[in-house]
Design goal:
Blueprint lengths: L5 H13 L3 E6 L3 E2 L2 E5 L9 H11 L3 E5 L11 E11 L1 E12 L5 E9 L13 H13 L3 E2 L19 H10 L4 H14 L3
Amino acid sequence: MLSIRTFPLIAILSVVAMGGCTSVQVDPLVSAPHLMCIKHNPKVMVSDFVPVLQQGFSRHGIDTRLYEGAIPRAECSYLVTYSARRSWDFMPYLSQADIQILGPDRRKLASAEYHLRAKGGFSMMKWQGTETKMRPVIDQLLAGVEVAPKSPVVEAETPASNTSLSYEERLSMLEQEQLPYEEYMRRFKALNQEFGR
């Protein structure tokens, strides 16, 4: 039989266990061009975040280009910025992410935020992969978007695999290829192995 003394303990444990809830806030995009530019965020240590982001936009008929430096406004009327954090509990996991879509005047048009309260608490769901966590968030962000039709574009050729490039340059080229997630991860692992990482 439970005593009166155990009720406060049960209440505290319930609050701690429920502290691992996920918070998702989305202000969806209404319309978009067929191409958006993603501004590379070097502070993000979640290696598969950009490919998951690109795959999500592609699922909704929007092509993306990743830019590290200055972004040409003429080519990129819409700009996607992002941040993502990982936390550690035996191994790293995505605990927070923020995506913003800026229009031609660089004002925010849409945004999505994913946040694990209390860094996931005791929930085993916190160790789910980036795609599992971000796919529904990106889908909510772009669910009702009307995409402008594509106009014919001639793309510049990218050089073949060049072993004289640095790891960072090769990783950037890989991220810009917009590969399916499985192919990206296969090549990402091969690149890491090649550079001894």
